[in-house]
Amino acid sequence: METTEIRLFKESNQSFIYHIEEKDFGIYHHHPEFELVFIKKGNGVRIVGDNIDEFEKNDLVFLGSYLPHVWRCDSAYNKKDGTFTGKGYVIQFVEDFIGKSFWTLPENSDLLRFLSHASRGCKFYGQTKSDLINIMLSMQSMSPTQRFYAMFSIFEILSFTKEYKFISSPAFHESNEMSESGPLRDVVEFILQNFKQNIKLKDVLEIANMSKTQFFLSFKKMYRMPFKSYLLKLRVGYACRLLANPTLNVSQVAYESGFENLSNFNRHFKSIKRCTPTGYRKELERKVMA
Question: Which domains does the chain have, with CATH numbers?
Answer without folding.
Answer: 4-166 (2.60.120.280), 183-289 (1.10.10.60)
